[in-house]
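User: Hi! I have a protein structure encoded as tokens and I'd like to know what sequence might fold into it. I'm fairly new to this, so please keep things simple.
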């Protein structure tokens, strides 16, 4: 069964790095719906507030399910040599992520 997760990388050029990691991982960006130049344009058209754009496809998935997915991915990455740094969560916020470092110490978040 395929699962979805997001990998968040702190970077100076998000578009460049997103395209790099997509190519590195064999991921193809899905095209936006017909009539829209981008996914953000589509989400704006259906009324999503600007501050919520770009947060991924799991916006309707319960936090508990997203937490399970993140934790499973963290375990998989740890088995590959990544190290858990800290859990990124705050009571009352609909957000859960885990900061990790790759084998060379580069920090990234799984959310």
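Assistant: Happy to help. Inverse folding works backwards from shape to sequence: for each of the 111 positions I chose a residue that suits the local structure. Here it is:
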């Amino acid at each position: 069964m395929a699962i979805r997760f997001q990998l968040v990388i702190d970077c100076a050029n998000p578009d460049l790095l997103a395209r790099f990691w997509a190519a590195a991982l064999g991921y193809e960006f899905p095209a936006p719906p017909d009539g829209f130049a981008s996914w953000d344009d589509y989400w704006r058209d259906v009324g999503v507030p600007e501050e919520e754009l770009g947060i991924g496809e799991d916006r309707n998935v319960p936090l508990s399910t997203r937490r399970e997915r993140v934790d499973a991915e963290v375990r998989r990455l740890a088995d590959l040599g990544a190290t858990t740094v800290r859990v990124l969560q705050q009571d009352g916020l609909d957000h859960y992520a885990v900061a990790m470092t790759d084998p060379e110490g580069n920090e990234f978040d799984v959310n």
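A useful reference point when you look it over: The longest strand covers residues 83-89. Feel free to ask if any position seems puzzling.
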